[in-house]
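Weekend entry, working from home. Most of the wet-lab plans are on hold until the incubator is repaired, so I used the time to fold the two sequences that have been sitting in the queue since the last round of cloning. Logging both here for the record. First:
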Amino acid sequence: MGGIQATVGPFSGIDTTSLINQLLQLAARPRDLAQQRLVQLQAQETAYLDLNSRLSQLQTVARAFQTQNIFGSASATCTSETTLTATASAGAAIGSYSFLVDRLVSTQQNISRGFLDRNSTAAGLTSLTFEPARGRLDTNVELASLNGGGGVARGRIVVTDASNASATVDLSRVATVQDVVDAINNTTGVHVHASLQGDHFVLTDTSGGAGTLTVASATGDTTATSLGLDVAAASGVITGRGVYRLGATTTLQTLNDGVGVRLNQAGGSASPDLTITTRDGVAHSVDLGNLYDAEQHVTSAPVSNIQGVIDRINSQTGGAVTASINAAGNGLTLVDTTAGTGNFIVANAAGSGAGTDLGIVGNVAGDPATPINGAQVL
């Protein structure tokens, strides 16, 4: 079987093979350009897939940071681990703290006698006394709770009675206000009686001298100042400044005579502690516990101090309500900044007693400038 192969036209002398090949290449150019574009798109697709994979890995790592509360965690170290060890939870105040180890703990166990029943046999009590929380020192408050949670600078004070006799009182190892009173009253060489009154210390001269009763910090110490005793005496009595008041760092667990604040224990973002209705009719939910993102991951730990409460109220109401410590330093004041004719209402959210424990539950009508003045919580 034969075939035909043409190279040059027998009559025209034209190279038809080359001409046909060029025409075919010209006709195939759109196809070649499309193939090149396809290769480019495939390369872009590969790059986008790689970027997506990297972003997914970053999201996974970031979620782990968020879930484990890495940025909110804290650690504590001690210069003498054999004497004292410490741990820090999320939200712990950053700083350096000094501790004086007075004595080592020893184990102790007390066992009551047996009871045949759970609700009939008397426990031996003759009376029970219940009293509300009050900002006073005669409940043997820890010194760490004084001065708005700033505590007391431990050290020595120099007491000089009206007979001009002086004595140095070492308060470097005291822990409570009663320890301070006992240390002063047990000091020999000076005739002064210390007592507690309301939110301050009182020193009374018992020497009968004609001089002036004075209290000063020893050289290098500021203890008298932090105890509020660096004031002038009147008629032989030093009435100290109030040192038991709320501050930004006052912890919630020290409020209400150490009972603390009852936060909503339910998990998830829909677990507020306060419902605040402003005079414009808007109801604001304030959450003092864990805060969550849209994926229900914890983004912030529960508030632990008064400043945390103030910040949550101010931010979660969008500035419609401003919270602050009252002038007396024993409670909170809430101010409605909106315009309207409704009542300004603060109530506990379901499952929480925070409003009651913070003393800010209230319902105020009338002048929009009228605030809710919280009750004493110290």
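Second, folded right after the first finished:
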Amino acid sequence: MALEAGTSSWSDRCKVVTVGLGTRLAALLPKGRIRAMLHLLAVAADVGALLVEVHQNTSSPDTEDGEAAPPLPWILICAAEVDAEHAWQLADAVAAARGLPVSVVLPAGEATRQACPDAGEITATDGAHTEMSPLGRPMRLQRLSDDQYRQDVTAPDRGT
């Protein structure tokens, strides 16, 4: 999912953050497509920074017509194990961001189900389409084996 988000044409118009996938993927893609973070606690702080940024832009718009530019969609893709405390901190941060275009993809587990009881599930069966809100775009998840992923992220720099 992170590779798809980082290489799609629409990803230059959104913020994609990953946890648990290492930093190599972000380094292989064009600058700014994906930002790798070490843990969910940092991600919750990033959502807080997004709220501050949106509030500041609303208070003093920079556009010619005096309207604040809408915030870019923000997507978290987490492959790391999620403990209950971090799941609740992230859920609180996302709840505070209501109305903002924020999507969170976490591994399904007891901690995430308790912290996010109303969350939907992404269909990850082979060939199935799913919709990623806030993008409102259907996407079909691609499949990479562990060996294919390792090969992609360890490939020599191709001058990109």
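Plan for Monday: verify the second prediction. The first strand starts at residue 15 and ends at 19.
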